[in-house]
Structures are given as structure tokens and as C-alpha cells.
Design brief:
This protein is an alpha/beta fold and 472 residues long. The protein has 18 helices and 10 strands. Pfam families: ThiC_Rad_SAM.
């Protein structure tokens, strides 16, 4: 049975037990959320190295990292290094978007080594196997999807919501169809004069997914690629179809999450999340960004993390990171690191704002370490401990400075926390009640694993360890 079928039958699976442990909640609550379609546990039965996790608005906000090669760059070793970097810096899932060479070898290696769910976009491989996109057949698509399911892929982006009748609605856009999958299928429909094959064969795809317990990630092939196109007829027409397909997948016992935009003005982000939740009956929403401004190539990990925070606060369950290379090039290891940091901040900030149980304990623990000038504890609690220590040590590298009551930003004489502490010790100000013996222990909080430091410590990780240097 799939996780969804088991949950509906009242069965608590081993994966649900593990998820409950990681989320610090009850296995029965996990089962109820999965049974109602409000959460998914992407866990292909053949992904042996997987440490199960859950995606749903009632759980810690998750972050996905996209990796993958292209014809221009990256090989198998390079992709495994990206995978290691993504897991090390806290990715909850990883999507392999490879479009270059050795697709099967890269995909199989990612599944073999990844403790987190692996996602793919099968239409990319289908395009690689024909001379022209219009040559793709229904049989080829199903063959590719079945093969990737056998290889252990946990979830697949299926752009089944792009219909022939939707294409004219994109004519007045500033940036047309920006989804790779969406544009490929639009071209296929235009040249063949036929309906989207992923739509017409959707129940056949469900049959494959049931056999391996692959989760649908229903792709937003008509997502807006600019602020001007956000919330237009094309986007919402596709969303209505995704709601229909969500219910069809559930009827067939298949888990579903739904993908979302894209580029959206900040004041419209919450409205878009709420609309998806209504149209898709609460299926988990998985959003790319959204980018809240179009003016910052090279900094789109920032423009999108702003929108991602708003989306998660409104109920999005998983955020797909954007790196500084977005729109400009294929991300490398440092770009993956920066993108994940931005999105980990967005996810955690939203969990704190939403009052997620125990999430604030991490913030409190770090604040207390900062006030106590406990530099080593600050580093250990930091989202990215290596970077925090590196920045501190650039100006004050010696071990003696790990005991210092100042940093190089203010120096000895102007450190506000030192001045404050000295004033309290001299009796000029009332002592702060919380002493060093009452410090918050973030590890003992009720927070989900994603809301407790340090990140990147997924159980069962078997990713090759040399990617970040011999000392890590």
C-alpha cells in the first residue's frame, strides 16, 4: 500500500513513526494528516537510503534544493558533490533537474546516496530521447515515468494541468510560458493538435505511482515569470485543473502536493497560497520563491526568500530555494549553500511567526549565548556554523578571542552588551532574571528537527563526504 492507502486504512507505517519522531508529534496525528491528503511522505519503496520526512502545513516548513547538470557543465562526481552540499546545509528534499548527459547514472547515484527524498521532472528525459519535442509519444512518457519510479525517485513533477484551452490565455503576457516543462508541452500540443498527454494519461501515471508509492508534485507549467503576469487567467485556469487532478490522484490512492509560483508581488502572495489551499482541498503547497521583485539578477535568493517567508506564513508547506544564479547560470556548490541559507531563514522565520511548537527556542538559545559572550555556543547554534566561525575568525582568530567580551564590530570600548552587563554588575541597573544556569536548551524543545540546530544532520546520510573538504 501507499502511505496514503495505509493511512486511510488506519495503519501507522514505519515511515509515519519516524516522521512523528522527527516532528516531535504523535504517529496518529501524522497518519490523520496523510489520510486527509493534508500532508505527504515522499518515500519510494525502492529508496533504501531514505530517512522519511513529511511535507504539510501542520509540520515544520520544509526546503527543497534543485541540483542537476546541463549540456554545458557538471558530471556525475559534480552532481554528487552538489547533493552532499545540499544535504549538509539542510535541504529537506533534493530535485535532480539534470538535462545533460548520463541522466540514468546521475539519477541512480542520487537515489543511492541521498537520505532525503529525490524529485525529478520526467518530461526532461523524454525530450532527450527524441529529435524534436513533438516526437514524444504517450508510450514514451509512460516508459520514462515507470523507469524513474523503478530507480527509486520519491516524487515527480508532472505538468498535467497545462491544457490546450489554456494556451491562448498566455498570449498577452510579458514573459509568456517560463516553465521548461510547461513550454515543452505547449509546443507539443501546438504541433500535434492534441491535448496534453500527461493530462490524458493521468490515471495511467497513477497506476505507476501506486506500485512504487511515488508522490505527485503537480507542476505549475503556466506559473508567472514576472510580476506583471502574476494571478492572470492562465495561471488560475491551470490551478483549477490541478485541483481536479489532486482529487483524481487521491481517488487512486496516490499522494499529492501542488507546485506554485514563481514571481508574485508581495501583497498578493498570501492570497495566492490561500487560493491554492481552497482549490486543491488543502493539499500541501510547494512554492518556488515567490520572487517579489524582478530587478535583482544575482540576488534572487534574497528577492525570493522574502516572498517565501510570506508564503510559508500563509500556509505553504515546502519552499523551493532560489540561488543567486537564478536566471543567470547553473548553480555551483557555493550557490547551493547561499540559496539554502536564505530559504532556511525564510522557513524558520515563518515557523516562528506561526507559533510552531518550540521553534522560537532556537532563537532564544542563540540570543542567550550571544549575551553571555559564549562564542563557541553561538557557532554551534548558528544556521551555518562554519560560516559564522569563519567570519568571526577573519579579524579575531586566536583561541583567546573565544573568551572575549567583544567582537571586532564594536571593539572593547563600545560593545553594548559588555557595557550593559557591567552596569548591571555595578548595581546601576536591575539584573536580568535569566542567568547562565537557566539558558534555553533548543535540543530539548518540542520543535521539529528542522527547527533545532544544527542543520544538515539527516539520519542515515550516505552521501560521499569529501565534497566539502577533508575536515568536514
Amino acid at each position: 500500500m501507499t502511505q496514503l492507502q495505509a493511512a486511510r486504512n488506519g495503519t501507522v507505517t514505519e515511515a509515519m513513526e519516524r516522521v512523528a519522531e522527527r516532528e516531535r508529534t504523535s504517529a496518529e496525528f501524522v497518519r490523520e494528516q496523510v489520510a486527509d491528503g493534508q500532508a505527504v511522505i515522499p518515500a519510494n519503496v525502492d529508496h533504501d537510503s531514505l530517512d522519511p520526512m513529511i511535507i504539510g502545513r501542520e509540520f515544520g516548513t520544509k526546503v527543497n534544493a534543485n541540483i542537476g547538470n546541463s549540456e554545458e557543465t557538471s558530471d556525475l562526481e559534480g552532481e554528487l558533490e552538489k547533493l552532499h552540499t545540499a544535504v549538509h546545509y539542510g535541504a529537506d528534499t533534493v530535485m535532480d533537474l539534470s538535462t545533460g548527459s548520463d541522466l540514468d547514472a546521475i539519477r541512480e547515484a542520487n537515489v543511492e546516496h541521498s537520505p532525503v527524498p529525490i524529485g525529478t521532472v520526467p518530461i526532461y528525459e523524454a525530450v532527450k530521447r527524441v529529435d524534436e519535442p513533438a516526437d514524444i509519444t504517450h508510450e514514451l512518457l509512460l516508459d520514462v515515468i515507470a523507469k524513474q519510479a523503478r530507480q527509486g525517485v520519491d516524487y515527480m513533477t508532472i505538468h498535467a494541468g497545462v491544457r490546450m484551452e489554456h494556451l491562448p490565455l498566455t498570449d498577452g503576457r510579458k514573459t509568456g510560458i517560463v516553465s521548461r516543462g510547461g513550454s515543452i508541452l505547449a509546443q507539443w500540443m501546438e504541433e500535434n493538435g492534441m491535448e496534453n498527454p500527461l493530462y490524458t494519461k493521468f490515471e495511467a501515471i497513477c497506476d505507476i505511482f501506486v506500485d512504487y508509492d511515488v508522490t505527485f508534485s503537480l507542476g505549475d507549467g503556466l506559473r508567472p515569470g514576472s510580476l506583471a503576469d502574476a494571478g492572470d487567467e492562465a495561471q488560475y485556469a491551470e490551478l483549477d485543473t490541478l485541483g481536479e487532478l489532486t482529487r483524481t490522484a487521491w481517488d487512486n490512492g496516490v499522494q499529492v502536493m501542488v507546485e506554485g509560483p514563481g514571481h508574485v508581488p508581495m501583497d498578493e502572495v498570501a492570497e495566492q497560497v490561500e487560493r491554492q489551499q481552497r482549490v486543491c482541498d488543502g493539499a500541501p503547497f510547494y512554492v518556488l520563491g515567490p520572487l517579489v521583485t524582478d530587478i535583482a539578477p544575482g540576488y534572487d535568493h534574497i528577492t525570493s526568500a522574502i516572498g517565501a517567508t510570506e508564503a510559508a506564513r500563509a500556509g505553504a508547506a515546502m519552499l523551493c530555494y532560489v540561488t543567486p544564479k537564478e536566471h543567470l547560470g547553473l548553480p555551483e556548490q557555493e550557490d547551493v549553500r547561499d540559496g539554502l541559507a536564505a530559504y532556511r531563514i525564510a522557513a524558520h522565520s515563518a515557523d516562528v511567526a506561526n507559533g510552531r511548537d518550540g521553534a522560537r527556542a532556537w532563537d532564544d538559545a542563540l540570543s542567550e549565548a550571544r549575551y553571555a559572550f559564549d562564542w563557541r555556543e553561538q557557532f554551534d547554534l548558528a544556521l551555518d556554523p562554519e560560516r559564522a566561525k569563519s567570519y568571526h575568525d577573519q579579524t579575531l582568530p586566536g583561541d583567546n578571542y573565544k573568551e572575549a567580551r567583544f567582537c571586532s564590530m564594536c571593539g572593547v570600548d563600545f560593545c553594548s552588551m559588555r557595557i550593559d552587563q557591567d552596569a548591571r554588575e555595578d548595581g546601576e541597573m536591575t539584573d536580568i532574571e535569566t542567568g547562565s544556569d537557566e539558558r534555553t536548551d533548543a535540543g530539548d524543545s518540542a520543535a521539529a528537527e528542522v527547527n533545532r540546530p544544527p542543520v544538515g544532520t539527516h539520519g542515515g546520510a550516505s552521501v560521499p563526504s569529501g565534497a566539502l573538504g577533508d575536515d568536514e
